[in-house]
């Protein structure tokens, strides 16, 4: 049924806006590029966070001995949430890259795809932004400590661990910005299809 | 210039989709309601967080004395970010409520308004979701502590403070969900204006 009303829509569009086709093709390429970038950023953030491990000799409070203690991402529930969210974003990134490529090759269903892209992008943005916020909030406490509640700094001892965590959060922030741009691009692409 | 090509668009739409007008009016009412709800939720979250203050007598570590110590939202940078973000969301909520009401009264510019709503909603979602995540991450450490880095629990002492913080974060999460719904609604409203 969709294939029968498609020629009508295409003919209406070509009558009303003859310049729409080449421009839409440009948007699609940007879509593919941004979505692949989202995939790459999410995977990078996950890998950098997972490889954040550091063992240091730290003194035991109240005793005159020191023991080796390992800092790893799984010590904090916020970092676990971060990894889950960014893994989902990576999977979403590669799947929608393939979908965006399919639009470039076969533009007939572009509008419907764009709608679903926009709706799903918004959901993913909520998940990735909150995960970045949660990891960032906890990492900031690790960096600066909080004297009011006697939470000590961690990053003066586990410097490499904190570098990994910080880089991972920065890349995730970039992924969030990409998702904002992708949603805006999808919305704008849909908006442009309304005949003026 | 916008007013000259507006009658054309209206006439095209009424020929192609005679049932579009009453339905769009329904969407606008939902828009107004959801945006007012966003304003109310944001203001509630800010007020509940700002009023989260509790003074308790706590022992000083290493000394045989106890002193009164006040827990307040400004002790944590994550909570300050939370309050800034939700205040902006509240302001945005009331401004866009007024804009959505203006659309109900004068639907001529509805499409352009919807585009700007969708683009701005996405930005606000990123800000509110990350703020909720940051406050939630820090509050979770306060609730459960983290034995790996010797961050003690706070909520067993400052119970009322934590109740306020928890409620505020729950309301902010609701505001984030509202923003997701609002963006989806704007996108879908724009999509529906494409002639089938």
From TrEMBL, chains A, B:
GO terms for cellular component: plasma membrane. The chain crosses the membrane at residues 32-52, 78-105, 117-143, 169-191. InterPro entries: CASP/CASPL, CASP_dom, CASPL. The keyword Transmembrane helix applies. Residues 1-22 are annotated as: Disordered. It is a multi-pass membrane protein. It is found in: Cell membrane. Residues 1-18 have a biased composition (Basic and acidic residues). It comes from the Eukaryota. Residues 28-178 form the Casparian strip membrane protein domain. The keyword Manganese does not apply. Keywords: Cell membrane, Membrane, Transmembrane, Transmembrane helix. Homodimer and heterodimers. Belongs to the Casparian strip membrane proteins (CASP) family. NCBIfam families: A_tha_TIGR01569 (TIGR01569). This is CASP-like protein.
């Amino acid at each position: 049924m969709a294939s029968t009303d498609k020629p009508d829509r295409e003919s209406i569009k070509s009558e009303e806006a003859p310049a729409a086709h080449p421009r839409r093709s440009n948007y699609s390429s940007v879509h593919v590029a941004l979505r692949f970038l989202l995939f790459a950023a999410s995977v990078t953030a996950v890998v950098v966070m997972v490889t954040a491990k550091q063992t240091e000799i730290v003194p035991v409070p109240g005793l005159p001995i020191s023991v080796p203690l390992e800092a790893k991402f799984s010590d904090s529930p916020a970092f676990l949430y971060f990894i889950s969210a960014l893994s989902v974003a990576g999977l979403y990134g590669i799947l929608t890259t393939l979908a965006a490529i399919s639009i470039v090759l076969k533009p007939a269903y572009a509008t419907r795809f764009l709608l679903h892209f926009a709706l799903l992008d918004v959901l993913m943005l909520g998940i990735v932004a909150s995960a970045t916020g949660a990891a960032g909030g906890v990492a900031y406490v690790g960096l600066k400590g909080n004297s009011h509640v006697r939470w000590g700094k961690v990053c003066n001892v586990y410097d490499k661990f904190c570098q990994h965590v910080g880089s991972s959060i920065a890349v995730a922030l970039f992924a969030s910005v990409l998702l904002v741009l992708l949603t805006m691009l999808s919305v704008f692409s849909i908006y442009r299809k309304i005949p003026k």
